[in-house]
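Re: your question from the hallway

Yes, I did run it. Sequences:
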Amino acid sequence: MKKKTLLALFTAGAVAGGLLSTKAFAQVEGELTPEQEMKLVQEYNRFLAEGINPGEVWYEVGKEAIKKYNLDKCDLGLGPGVFKGAMTQLPRYFADAGKVMDLETRVGWCLQKHAGMTQDQVLKFVRHCWGKTGNCVSEYDGIIMYLTMESNGQKINVNLKDPKVKRMYDIGKQIYYARIGPWDFNCATCHAGKQEVRIRATRLWSADRPGEAGNAVSIFPKYLVRWGLPMTMHYRYSECMRQMRWPEFIPHSDLAVALSAYLYGTANGTEIKAPGIGR
Amino acid sequence: MAIGAGILRVPKEAKKGEVVRVQMVITHPMSPPRKDPATGQEVPPHTLTKLELFYNNRLVSTVNMGAGISANPFMAIALKVDESGVVRIAYEDNKGGKWDRTAEIKVT
Amino acid sequence: MNRRKFLALSAMAVMGLTLAPTLQPAFGSTPRLEEELQKRLGVKLAQIKEVGEVKLTAPTIAESGANVPITVESDIPIDRVEHLWVFVDKNPIPWIADVKLTPMNGQVYFSTRIKMGETSNVRAILKLKDGSYVMATKEVKVTAGGCG
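Structure:
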C-alpha cells in the first residue's frame, strides 16, 4: 500500500472516530500537538495537587508506629527523638554505625537496634506494600512519611564538605551515569543532560538542569494515585532498577545511600514538601 | 491504622454567613467486584456507600457513592456557617463499617 | 482510495457530525447511561438541559483513569437546588456518586476524584426544586502516563 493511501485511511479512521465519539471533534486522538498534550498533562497534575493529599494520612500512621517500634529513641543525627529538621541533613555520617546513611537506611538501623528486628524482618517490613495497590497500608511508609513531613518547609542541606559524605556522593554519581544491565541502561538515560527527554507527554526531570533534582526528590514519599499508596525513595530506586533490568535492588543498601547522597546533595537548597502526588 | 481512618479539614475560623469548604480524605480501597486472578474466585466489592455531613447535629448533605470513586476518597462540600459549631462526618461501607470524625469552626 | 475520494468521504463525515445533534438529541449517550438515568433520575439524557450555570471542572487529559479530579459548582442559588449527580457515560457502572443538597450548604459545590475506565464524557447533573434537570458535560481523555 502506498504511503499516501495509508495516511488517508488513517485520517479517515480518525474522522470516523470523531463521529462515534461524543462531540469533541477537536479532541480526536492525534490532533493535539505534543506541546498541547504536555500542557494538559501538567493541568492534570495541578488538579491532582488540589485538596488534601491522601498521602498525608500516612503521617498519622507513622506517628503511631514510631511509638510502637520504639523509634523515639532513634537518632537521625540531631539527637534521639529529634525529628524536626532531621531530614534536611540526610544522608550524613553516623559514628555509632560507622557509615553514611540516608533516612531510610537509618530507620532500618534503628528498627534493628530499638525494635529488635533482624535485617530480614526489616526488609519484609519495608516491602510490606510493594507491588500492591488500593488497600495496603504499611507502617514503614508511615514512619518515613512522618519523619520526612517533620522537615517540611525546611531546605535540604547535605554536608558535602564531610569527606565521607562526599565519597558516597561521588560513588552515587558514578552509579547514576553507569550504563549496566542487559539493556545498557542507567538513571541518566532518562534523567540527565541539558536536552529535554520525554516519555509520552511527560517531560522528564534532569539532574543536569539546575533545580530539577531538587524538585524531584523533595516531594518524596510521593502519593501515587494509580496505586493508592505513597512511594518512598527506596521503593522508587527499586522500581527504576527493575525497569532498567538491573540486578534486584536491596533497600537500605550502600547503593541506595550513594544514590541518595548524590541526589539529595544535588538537591541542596530545595525546600522539603512531602508528600508529593502523581500518577 | 485501618480502613476508615481519615482527615477532616475545615477552616478554624470563619465569618458569620461565610460559605466554607469541608474537605476530607478517608482511607478505603473502594474496590469494585472482581475476579481474583490467582484463584478465579469472585471477590465482592468493598466500598464506602454513604457519607453524611452534619453541622451542630443538623444534617447538611448526604453523599451516596460506590466503586466509581477513587481509592482513598477525597471529597469537598460547601457549608454555610452562621454560628460557631462542630462539623461531623459519619460514613459507612458495604461491609458494616461505620466511622465518624469531627472538627470545629469558630465564627468570629 | 485516492485523495479526491478521501476528501469527499471526509466532507460527508464532517457533515454527518454537524447534522447529528439535530437528528439525534441524545447524541453521545450510551445505553448504560440511559439505563442508569432512568433508574436513578427517571429521565432520559435528552430531557436534561446543558446550561452554562453548571460548571464542571475536570482535566482534558487524565494520565491515570484510577484518579480523575472533578469539581462541580453552580451559580444557581442553593435553595433552588435539590440534588447533584455525577456520571461517567462509558464506565461499567456510569453512576459515580450523588449528593443531597440543602440550603445549609450555602452553595452548590462538590469536588472529588473519580475512576474512569476509558475516555468518556463526565456529566454533572442537578435536579432543581421545580423538578427540572440541568447539567454540564466534559470529555476526559484517559491516556497512559509515562514510566511507572
